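Why show two proteins at once? Because comparison is the fastest way to build intuition. When a single record is shown, students tend to memorize it. When two are placed side by side, the eye starts asking what differs. So, the first record is below.
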Amino acid sequence: DKTIRLWDSRGLQVAHVFPAKQHIQTYCEVSEDGHKCVSCSNGFGGEGCEATLWDLRQTRNRICEYKGHFQTVASCVFLPRALASMPIIATSSHDCKVKI
């Protein structure tokens, strides 16, 4: 249904549903500190081929979108904080590229 849902594991109830994106969401990951979530979506020809960064503390807020792939973004991850002084996200796509 093109949404990402946060679940309360205590009662197995949906705690929040992020606004639906235009394209199907293919993967998501939560940052180590639990404050952010990154999701990625399918697409083709550069349309819908993005990763979206969400603020989990203010769950209605999309922080930004990372565009640049030309096919479905299959995976997105937060890289370990030890690699840089600031948070870094990596994405991989069906266009055979990894972007950081």
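Second record. Ask yourself what differs from the first in the token line.
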Amino acid sequence: AASYTDSSDDETSPRDKQQKNSKGSSDFCVKNIKQAEFGRREIEIAEQEMPALMALRKRAQGEKPLAGAKIVGCTHITAQTAVLMETLGALGAQCRWAACNIYSTLNEVAAALAESGFPVFAWKGESEDDFWWCIDRCVNVEGWQPNMILDDGGDLTHWIYKKYPNMFKKIKGIVEESVTGVHRLYQLSKAGKLCVPAMNVNDSVTKQKFDNLYCCRESILDGLKRTTDMMFGGKQVVVCGYGEVGKGCCAALKAMGSIVYVTEIDPICALQACMDGFRLVKLNEVIRQVDIVITCTGNKNVVTREHLDRMKNSCIVCNMGHSNTEIDVASLRTPELTWERVRSQVDHVIWPDGKRIVLLAEGRLLNLSCSTVPTFVLSITATTQAITYLSVFSIQALALIELYNAPEGRYKQDVYLLPKKMDEYVASLHLPTFDAHLTELTDEQAKYLGLNKNGPFKPNYYR
């Protein structure tokens, strides 16, 4: 029997379907609302691996600290995102959601959210036009004005700036969780065009280390295995970029016995790569010999048509950065090259002489397009996002001030990093899962270090 996620027998665009959930609502657009039961089971599994979000939900749902919040979100639509959305809903927020990647939506989870009453506009395999249509359906709705933005990549923020700039008069702030989106926000701020406060979640330590480093360390192997069934031992791999994502990918591949090369523009990251035992090269120096090329830079045209022309037969090419700009896929859509679909998210691109490369997810984010990511890690990231919205939480005499409940004037029209205390709080919520026991400073030790016994234990610049 076909899997419940198999849509091969139904090529009708969700935009052309008339669907309603069991309550009669049609304010959503998903692949198949009948898959909701399967999605609900996946969400229930995810809840078991997201202890901090569930603790936040239990602790604050009576107080409804997000009452009145109208959050429009654009992230990956997965079981883990569903736990975040339902937590925000339990705390009083109204949410409307679209996907930030055309391949990462889990159709059954989107159906479960729609069945629960969330206006969700997303399905796996959207076209570019579908992508922007879904974002517009989240934003442009009569009688509903968002007052908070949760973005992953900056596309939602960009769309509102472009199409509905007047909405920013009522928006209290933006929360952004990706390198790409944060870069866009800093560009807006530098140009004097950022008209609301923005919170940079990406550069919080719990996001950088757990989502970018540890998550990618596990999910890079999962994505490559599911798509290619390859063996890693002895393979030559070049990883472009040695930031947190690159570090995670390199560590995983090295542990599996691969020979790993690194390209990097930053001398500090480059030195780290050398000290970690990786050979630092320029891409041109190894492009003819490597078996796998992985981009992790957040930049554009890292792998150009010239590189692609010089790759050896059956080289695997993929991207672990947020955007689809790192590999020049557009240059491959020319008459002399033949595209051959192997399986979902796997293409052969064949040259006239018979040489072929294996392109994964058409150059989009590998792990969320072709596999899944560890739920526990996303619990950390999602909790960081959630706390960014929630004030009234305090831990050990220090209030967590955030955008939604912040007094007018506290946050200017700029990009802010999350306080170290919040990072420590998110981490502490996850320690009970490991039966971990924190050591406490004595009064004498705290005085000697010049710290509060309850933290924060590191300065905000510490990474």
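One difference worth noting in the second protein: The chain has two domains: 14-203+375-425, 215-370.
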